[in-house]
Each structure stands twice: as C-alpha cells, then as structure tokens.
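Hi V.,

Quick status before I head out on leave. The structure for the redesign project is tokenized and pasted below; the design run finished overnight.
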C-alpha cells in the first residue's frame, strides 16, 4: 500500500520506502562487522517490527537465528504507560546468547527499557538494541541504542509495520498520521 492509496488520513511521507531500505542496508553492514565471529539471535518485537526484521535480516551477510516476542504496554492508543505484559514469549533459551532486539520505534522508551531488563535477566552473553525510529522523548529515558535508523519529530507516524488501531501497517513508507484521525 502506498501513500496515494490513503489520501486524507496522512499528512505526508516522512521516510520513503527507498530511504528505509538504504538505511537498513547501512545498519546491516555494521551488524555484519560487529557480529562476524559471534552467533547472533535477532529478537523481533511483534507486531510493529515485522517489516524491519524482514528487510534487515535479508540485508545481512552473516547467518542469524530469529525469534519473536509480543508485548503489550498498557496506556492510551497513542501513549505508552511503561507497564508491560508479555503476550508471546521467546521459544529460545537465552543462556549465553548474543541477542539483538529489533524494534520499530522508541517513543518514551519505557517498553524497550523493560524488555532490556527482562532479557538481560535470562543469562544472555549480550543484549543490544536496533530501532528503526526514535522520537525526542526517548532521549530522556535511559535506553542504550546500538543501531539507530532515524531520529524523527514528535508526531504520530504509521506505516512500515507501525499502526494506529491496527491500521496502516502495510504502508510501504513511514508517514505522519493526520491528528484528525485520532483526535475526537
Ligand atoms: P514507548 O514505550 O513509549 O517507547 O512505546 C513504544 C511503542 O509504542 C512502539 O513499539 C509502538 O508500538 C508504539 N508507538 C510509539 N510511537 C508510535 C507512533 O508514532 N506510531 C505508531 N506506534 C507508536
Ligand atoms: Mg512496537
């Protein structure tokens, strides 16, 4: 789905499909180098990170394993609370593993800092974070991001896995959602 298919709901493209792929390839090259002599487990956070993981792992030259987690952060539809619940846990035992968490977006950072603590408590060799997007608010939370795609303004964005009320995930780019869609 492209922006033209959604006329009216969106206020413009923030990051094009082409820009997303270019950046993911650059991030993959760094991960290739950093994990050249290590066994890497990529943990995608459902559902938002599905597109990021799919394109990122295919841009890698090293073989990796993949697993998925689904977490839910209580809060309103556009703000997270930091109270996190595991909806689907990993199938993989993390003991001694090098883990790379792949996220779609870091907003308050509350979800990811909880996830980092949770995975690190499982006896991992290392846990790092790759996030495609980061908002300014995240700078105030202590989340150590090893691989960052783009810093973006504090707008609500959709597409490339990111949703509003489960909609817009299959948009091929990242676009700003018109506030009239969520402000009543
Ligand atoms: P945090 O805990 O505030 O960092 O929120 C992270 C989660 O909130 C992300 O994984 C997304 O699911 C969701 N989120 C935050 N900002 C946006 C956005 O602009 N669009 C879509 N989802 C978002
Ligand atoms: Mg998410």
């Amino acid at each position: 789905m492209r922006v033209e298919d959604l006329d009216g709901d969106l206020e413009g493209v923030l990051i094009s499909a082409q820009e997303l792929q270019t950046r993911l390839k650059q991030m993959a090259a760094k991960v290739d180098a950093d994990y050249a002599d290590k066994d890497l487990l990529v943990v995608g956070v459902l559902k938002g990170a599905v597109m990021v993981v799919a394109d990122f792992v295919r841009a890698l030259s090293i073989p990796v394993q993949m697993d998925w987690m689904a977490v839910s952060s209580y809060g309103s539809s556009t703000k997270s609370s930091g109270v996190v619940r595991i909806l689907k846990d990993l199938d993989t035992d993390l003991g001694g593993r090098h883990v790379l968490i792949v996220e779609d977006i870091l907003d308050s950072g509350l979800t990811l800092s909880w996830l980092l603590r949770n995975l690190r408590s499982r006896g991992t060799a290392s846990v790092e974070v790759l996030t495609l997007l980061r908002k300014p608010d995240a700078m105030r939370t202590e989340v150590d991001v090893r691989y960052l795609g783009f810093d973006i303004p504090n707008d609500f964005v959709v597409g490339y896995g990111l949703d509003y009320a489960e909609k817009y995930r299959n948009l091929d780019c990242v676009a700003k959602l018109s506030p009239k869609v969520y402000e009543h």
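Above is the designed sequence. The helical segments are 17-34, 50-59, 110-120.

G. will cover questions while I'm gone.

Best,
W.
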